[in-house]
Structures are given as C-alpha cells and as structure tokens.
Design a protein that fits this description.
The complex is a heterotrimer of chains A (100), B (468) and C (389). Chain A is mainly beta and 100 residues long. Chain A has one helix at 32-37; strands spanning 5-6, 14-19, 22-27, 44-45, 52-53, 66-69, 74-76, 87-89. The chains are: A mainly beta (100), B alpha/beta (468), C alpha+beta (389). Chain B: It comes from Rhizobium wenxiniae.
Chain lengths: 100, 468, 389
C-alpha cells in the first residue's frame, strides 16, 4: 500500500524509473519522494536498527529520506526531482551493522 | 551608486521565502545588487512553495486565503531577475568572516559578501512520541508541503496531532482536498484557546479563520480532542493507528496517515556559524539569535529576518525582511526613509504582541517528557532513545547540551540535532532538575546539511568572488 | 579546603592523574575552566597509536598501551577502544624510506612494525588506492578509541572514586606557600594542596609562568571530518606518512578523517573551527586515497584547541623551580594514546618522587638549557639535562 495518493497531476507525462529493480512510473513534476511513496511505503532502512523509514519533514531539514541510486550515489528524496531512468534502491542498508 | 559603493562586495541574502524576497526587493530598490541563495528550485520558501511543474490547480487551492500574497511575491521575485544574482538549488553550508561557502551545481563556491541577511525560515517543532518514526507519520509542515507542492496527500484516513495554528490549517486543507480527516488531536487544552479569544480585542482575521476551519470540519464529522497526552503512533512497518489519552481515558483511532507537529522552530544554525549571540526565549523554550528592532544581530553586517530568528508568520517575515534590508542599506551609508522603517517596526511590534497571545493558547507540551517510555526514539538519525539519553547523562554526570551530545551521540547525525535538539534539552533539563535555559544549546557546526565528499576542493588562493 | 593534590585541567591527563592518585589513597581536587573532556582530549581524532611517535616517547606509550585494554575495569566503559592496527602509508620512495628508517629506530623497542610492499598492501588492504600508496608500515597492536567517551569516562570515574571535580571553575591564581600551594579558583573557597599538577593543556602557560618557567607553548587546531554511516570497509586506522590525511572507521560505520588545521574563532579564541579550504582539501584527498568514500557525505566538521611545543614533545615531569609542582601539557596533537600512561606517571611522581618510565626528554628544563636563549619569563637555574631529540 503506497503512503501517498495523488490529488493532482494524475495525467501528467509519465517518467520511467526503477525501484529495487522493478520498472515503475512517476509523473513529471514529482520529487523522488513522491514518485516512490505513491508506489511503495518506505524509502530506506534506518542506519542502525534497519527499521523502515519514509521521510518526515519534506523540506530538506530532517535528512530522513536519503535513498541510494544503483550507481552508489545518495540523494535526498524530498529535494531531488524524479528523472527518467533513475534506478533507486530502498531496501538495502547503506550503513553499519552489515559486512561490506 | 558611487564608485566606492561599487567596489564593495554584494550583499548576500540566504533564503528566498517571504523575508528573503522582500529583503531582495528592498535592496534592489536602493540600487544594490544582492546575491540570493536558496535551497529550493523556486522562490517562495516553505509557506509559498511552488510546484516543480504547473499542476493545473489554482493558487487559491494551493495557498488558500494567502494566495494573493503568494502570487504577488512570486511575481515580484520574477521581476527582480537581472537586478540580482539568484542561486537556487544552493546550500549555504558554512559562514565565516564575510564568506559564505555554498554547494551549488555539483561543486563548491565561496561567496564573499558585504552585508548578510539571514532569512532561513523554520521547520516543525517536535517532541518525540512512540511511533513517530513510522512510515506514514509526517510533520505537519511536510503534510502541507506534499499537498501544495506535489499534489499528493499522506493517506486516505488521516489523523492530525500536535498543537498550534498549523494543526487546524493543514487539517482543513486536507479536508478541502477531499480526504477523510478522522480527527484533530490538540495537546493544548480548549481552555487555553478560550483564554486567547478573551485576550484578543476584535478577533483578528487569523483567529476568525481558525474558528471557521473548526466549524467547517465539525460539519464534516471531524473529531476534535483537546488536552490530549500519552500520544502514540501505532503500526508495525507503517502507521496503522493512533492512540492517546484524554481526561484519563485511552482512545484509539485507525488511520493510514498522520501529520504531527507542535508549533514551529527557527532554523538558527547559520546565525550561529555567523557568530550571532543567542538568548533564551521563554515563550518558545529555545535559544534564539538576538536582534534589535531594526533586525541587526550582534554581529555587525549580519541581519536577521523572518521566522529564522523567531516565529511570527509570513506577514511578519515580509516586514522584517524589508526592515533588515533597510538597516543594511543604512549601514552602507545610503539613504533610507525613516518613516518607512518606523512604520515597519510598529507593525512588527503589533504582530509580535498578537503572536505572544497566540502561542500561549498552543503551549509546547513539555510535560509529555515525563511520560515518555524509555524506548521512545528521540534522535531519528543516530537512533538514540529516551533511555539512551537519560542513562548517558546519568553515567557521565552531564548537565550541558554539548556534553550530552558528546557522550550520547544525540544531535550527531545527518540533521545535526535540528529535529531532536529541543526534545533532548527538555529531557536533560527534566532529568537533571535544571531549568531548560540552564542546559544550553547545541553549538552549530558546518556543514549545516550533509555535503558530498567528492566535490573539488576550494583552492587556497581564491579570494572572494562575486556571483556572475 | 585542604587536599593532597590540586590538578588544574580536566582533560584526559588531569582526569587520569586524578583517578590514579585516588587509587593510591590521596585526596584530590580537580579544577576545570569549562567541562571535563570538552577540549582537545574529547575532540581529537581518536588514534591510539605508538607508531610514528618520537623514539623517546615509546616507553611512555608502551606504558599507556598496557592500560588501554583495561579501560572497562578502570573507568567502567571500554571507550570503544579497538586494537584494529594502525597503518602508515608511503606515497613514494622517499616516504617509504622514512618509514623504513623509523622501523629500524624502533626495532629495539616493544613496538612491532611490519613493512609492506605495494603488492602486500594491495592484497591486505584493497580499499586503499594502489596508485597512491606504494608501501606501508603496519603496527598490528595499535588501534583507535572514542575520545568523547574516554575523556568523559575518566572524568566520571575520577568523580566516582572521590575526586572533587569543579567544572566551569577557572583558576585565577596559584602560588607557593611554605607547606604547599594555594589555588585561587573562581567561585570556590581557597584550596591548599601539598602538590600541584599543571595539566591545563593549551591554557597551561600562565601556570608555568607563575613559577618562573615560561615556555614557548603554542596552539594548534587539528581539523576533523566525519561522514554519514557507511558499510564498514576501512578495517584499520590509517594515515599517510607526514600526516596530510588520516582516517579511521568506527563500528557504527562513520569514517573520521583528519588533516589540515582549523583556526581559532574570532568571537571566542578558546574554540576553533575548521576552515573551508582545509576540510574540502582533506575530503578530496580522502576520496582519492579511499575510493569507497566517493559517494559519501560529510555530516560534521570540528576542530579543537591543543597546546603544542616547538619540538613536538610534551612537557611532563617535576618543575625545575618549585618542588611539589608537576607539569603535564603541550602534547602537540599526539596526547590521546599516552595520556592514561601520563596519569600513572604523575601519580608515581607524587607518591614516590620518581617514576619507572623514562621521561627526562620531556622535562620543562629542556627549554632553559641555554640561559642566553632562555625565555623572557625568567629562566630558572641551568639544568644539566639535554634536549630531547
């Protein structure tokens, strides 16, 4: 069940991206956060206990919505516009507690 | 402009919300060419935030009764292009001695400036409660931003909890967007709001508007509970419900989304890095950078505007932005209209007085601290819970916030304590039996937000450069 | 108030000395102008290494080396001390020759070093860029710890052991009396002590001056960067020869990276901050040396104020002018590992008048060897001691 539901831009141009390897569609004008959370219900495991997290402040302040791209690059989902072909990983831990 | 004035570096404005835009317009009108740096891709700040692409919705839908102001400011800033240097999508990560370090366009830039107006805005103020880190719990501000700027809502059956005017505004906006708002849960007792009604002569528009919101929501079957405590967000991998106590009785509500916030908290890290003096503010139980009525900070050439130096709302932000700009202009030896400055100060005094009454009717529920279970997460980044903080303070005999940070890691994560700092101070004050003003505040540290390691280094020989 | 020992300075040296003295049954008052462990002791890089120290420091470092694994018994926490090993990298033949020369010099000591060529280095530490590092010297028994916890831990343990700790209590004046010392500190009654320890770090100068032992104590501001938590890849504490960049990764995943210098704050000279040029230079060097950092974000920079001597050796030992006075300051950016050993040495000096660990090289008298070049603060009678090398 997605966390977010659209009330506007439903018919905006679709933008293709992948979420944990699965092809998905967002809309032109989406942030990465909106694109992911209108499909899914998490953005990342927390760093230490690996609890699911899905952002909080939506204004680049709380730093809770960092997601990993397949290139290894890390971006803050709430302030990153969705771009065609983005390959996003939300299930793998970035951090400590797991071997490299 | 005289030749001498041309030789001086440009003024720098941080933030392009109502305070920053108004400051920019004022500086341009005085013949100066400011640099305006803003993290967002478009101007407006959080309150008048714009969508990434037009989404077919009217400004009235997006900004409600404030739509004319939002549109006026957006238009005004657009009209200033060419007369200022605007760096959107740009983070100021450090300030020192007339230089701002910014991350922009995949690299670092050093912006030398002469005169600095900080219009850094605010975010939701939080006191952690069990479950507040669950997916589907967003800050009130975040709930509003995703609706106005992204055209998305945070669920199909939503509970809004916390306190403050934003609680009612966001709930009403969600109702108007056609979403089922299950309940509004206010930490403040109804008696506090009644007291405000009595204290305010002639019911200012904002109060009337709030009353209307409540009436309309009641008509739609939204439940209201006042003076709630022991709030918890419940669910396993996402929010599934909310429970709370009211008049000693525990209640439970099912929901699939929740907005949570307890008023607003200024973004003060840059004022700290700029060296501004701070003083404890009793009303908001936080340390704020000090400013005089002309918006001068304790540091010559640094001016403070908008909610970033104390919560007063968007209208006050515009006025303090203008007032700060007038001080900067005057300090450059240019002429200003003293009548205009005096008028702004008078209006600001009125708004501040009103705000004091307003805030009293939505007091921060610091008493919740005593009821928090030990495993309540306080620091989302470092995952430090209530017991972790209490135990560390206890074991090491800590009485001060920066020492608490050193031994508990609170505030050491990606957000640098911007979210949990207030709560940690409340916890330390409560557990040491000291007043919150005595435990101090976390020192600001660069970078104020995470900074990519891979950016090319700043060359040592570079002196100040102006924006092109 | 009357105590056996008054200690000025609540850093790691002062607090470990206080604890060691209490354990020997002496009464101790400790005076700290700010908060214990809040300055250099608590904000340093956290390297626990003997490798790279001047040879004359190695006996003292070896003494401390024995204390680190016993922190839990001593202060109740392990301070995140881990014997991960410490690796010193050479980026060219000259640096490798320097590492080799150091290894030869240390051969007769307890410090065991292993020299690695390019292939062995690449095989054992594949996360280091092999284009940059051509060889290394590895000290398997050195490691790292968390300075924030260790410094606060010694202070808390000292307090629990019965040391009277006065924080936010600057010392306003010290003087010698017939029976010992009189310490005048802000907001507390006069303290009379048979012994006085000057462990005031970067602020120690006036307390040496007061006993006609003016020394060229300077200040340095090491500059640090910490990344967000990442998967653990950096298995050992690592630095390049010459100290241009050094890094370690903690178990939680954050990488701590040092290099360059900060600067004192204009509005409060007791605190310092990194510089933009410094941190961005170090970040770039670190990303080149450790490619796994390419996508990392830095989340915090900090600096600290550290007392430094021109010869980079600390001042440790009895005063050259005043009996009962002991100096221990000026650790010059390398005090963390040896500090617990220094605490024991101070306790020994006070209780027995001597120490089993050679510390002659650190005598304050080394600055007064040549009276003609002596400090203007009044050079004491010439000492026969020679300067440390």
């Amino acid at each position: 069940m997605p966390l977010l539901h659209r009330v506007a831009r439903q018919n905006e141009v679709p933008i293709g991206f992948s979420l944990n390897g699965k092809p998905c569609e967002g809309r032109r004008g989406d942030t990465l956060l909106s694109a992911i959370l209108t499909i899914d219900e998490r953005l990342r495991p927390s760093d230490f206990s690996h609890e699911p997290r899905a952002g909080f402040c939506q204004m680049s302040a709380c730093q809770d919505c960092w997601v990993t791209l397949i290139s290894g690059e890390r971006v803050r989902a709430c302030s990153t516009p969705l771009a065609e072909g983005m390959q996003v990983i939300t299930r793998a831990a970035n951090s400590a507690g797991e071997p490299a | 402009m005289s030749d001498a004035a041309k030789d001086r570096a440009q003024p720098l404005i941080v933030g392009a919300g109502p305070a920053g835009i108004r400051a920019a317009a004022t500086l341009v009108a005085a013949g100066l060419r400011p640099i305006v740096v803003d993290e967002a891709p478009a101007c407006g700040g959080q309150i008048y935030r714009q969508p990434l692409v037009p989404d077919g919705r009217d400004a009235r839908v997006r900004y409600g009764s404030e739509a004319p102001k939002a549109e006026r400011l957006h238009r005004e800033f657009a009209g200033l292009q060419g007369k200022l240097d605007y760096l959107p999508n740009t983070l100021v990560w450090n300030l020192s001695d007339g230089v701002a370090d910014v991350a922009t366009n995949g690299g670092h830039r050093r912006l030398a400036h002469d005169g600095l107006i900080l219009a850094t805005g605010a975010m939701d103020r939080i006191l952690p409660v069990p479950g507040w880190t669950l997916p589907g719990v967003f800050s009130l501000g975040g709930s509003q931003i995703v609706l106005k700027a992204q055209g998305c809502v945070i669920g199909s059956r939503i509970v809004f909890a916390g306190t403050g005017p934003l609680l009612y505004l966001v709930a009403w906006q969600y109702m108007k967007a056609g979403v089922k708002v299950a309940a509004v849960l206010d930490a403040a007792p109804l008696t506090a709001q009644m007291a405000m009604m009595k204290a305010l002569p002639g019911f200012p528009a904002i109060v009337l508007r709030g009353t209307r919101f409540i009436a309309e929501m009641m008509m739609k079957g939204v439940a209201f509970h006042y003076g709630i405590n022991k709030l918890r967000f419940e669910g396993t991998s996402r929010i599934e419900g909310v429970s709370f106590e009211v008049r000693g009785k525990r209640r439970h509500l099912a929901c699939d989304g929740a907005g949570f916030g307890l008023g607003l908290k200024p973004e003060t890290q840059l004022a700290d890095l700029a060296g501004c003096q701070f003083a404890f503010n009793e009303r908001d139980r936080v340390f704020l950078p000090q400013t005089d009525t002309a918006r001068r900070s304790s540091v010559p050439g640094v001016y403070l505007a908008g909610d970033g130096s104390g919560i007063a709302g968007a209208d006050a932000a515009e006025m303090s932005g203008e007032r700060a700009a007038l001080s900067l202009i005057e300090d450059r030896g240019l002429a200003v209209d003293p009548g205009r400055a005096g008028k702004l100060e008078k209006e600001l005094r009125k708004i501040f007085a009103f705000r004091n009454v307003l805030e009293q009717s939505f007091p921060f529920p610091s008493q919740w601290i005593a009821d928090l279970p030990g495993d309540t997460m306080v620091c989302r980044c470092e995952e430090i819970d209530v017991s972790g903080i209490r135990d560390a303070a206890d074991h090491f005999g800590i009485v001060e916030m920066n020492r608490l940070k050193a031994v508990s890691r609170i505030g050491m994560g990606r957000c640098q304590g911007r979210v949990c700092g207030s709560a940690a101070a409340e916890l330390l004050a409560a557990s040491t039996g000291r007043p919150i003003s005595a435990v101090g505040r976390l020192r600001g540290q660069a970078p104020v937000k995470p900074l990519p390691m891979s950016y090319a280094a700043i060359a040592p020989a570079v002196t100040g450069e102006a924006a092109e | 108030m009357k105590v056996d020992v008054a200690i000025i300075g609540g850093g790691l040296v002062g607090c470990s000395a206080a604890l060691a003295l209490r354990q020997r049954g002496l009464s101790v008052a400790l005076l700290e102008r700010g908060f214990c462990g809040a300055q250099a002791s608590g904000v340093n890089y956290g390297g626990v290494r003997r490798q790279g120290r001047p040879i004359e420091q190695l006996p003292l470092a070896q003494r401390a080396h024995a204390i680190w694994p016993k922190l839990r018994q001593l202060i109740g926490i392990d301070g995140e001390f881990r014997r991960t090993g410490q690796l010193k990298l050479a980026r060219n033949e000259t640096e490798m020759a320097s590492l080799e020369a150091y290894a030869r010099g240390a051969a007769s000591t307890d410090l065991k070093l292993e020299l690695l060529g390019a292939n062995a280095l690449a095989e054992r530490f594949p996360w280091i860029d092999r284009e940059i590092a051509v060889g290394a010297s590895f000290s398997a028994d050195d490691g790292q710890a968390n300075p924030r916890l260790v410094s606060a831990g010694f202070a808390a343990a000292a307090r629990r052991a019965g040391v009277e700790i006065y924080e936010q209590t600057p010392v306003l004046g010290v003087s010698k009396e017939a029976e010992g010392f009189l310490v005048d500190a802000q907001g507390v009654p006069a303290i009379r002590a048979a012994h006085l320890v000057n462990a005031a770090g970067a602020w120690a100068g006036p307390f040496a001056d007061a006993f006609r032992e003016g020394v060229p104590l300077g200040r340095i501001y090491p500059s640090m960067i910490v990344t967000e938590p990442m998967k653990v890849f950096m298995t050992v504490n690592t630095g390049v020869e010459g100290g241009e960049v050094y890094a370690r990764q903690v178990e939680r995943g954050n990488c701590i990276i040092g290099g360059q210098r900060g600067a004192a704050r204009a509005d409060d000279a007791d605190f310092s901050r990194p510089t933009d040029v410094g941190v961005t230079t170090v970040m770039q060097r670190a990303v080149r040396l450790f490619p796994s950092l390419k996508n990392a974000h830095a989340i915090r920079f900090w600096s600290g104020t550290e007392g430094a001597m021109p010869d980079k050796n600390p001042v440790i030992g009895q005063s050259s002018t005043t009996s009962g006075l002991i100096h221990a300051f000026g650790f010059s950016g390398a005090g963390f590992q040896i500090a617990p050993g220094v605490g024991e040495v101070i306790a020994e000096l006070i209780t027995t008048g001597e120490t089993t660990t050679p510390i002659d090289a650190f005598s304050i008298a080394r600055f007064f060897v040549d009276a003609a070049k002596g400090s203007g603060a009044g050079a004491p009678p010439q000492s026969p001691q020679s300067r440390g090398t």
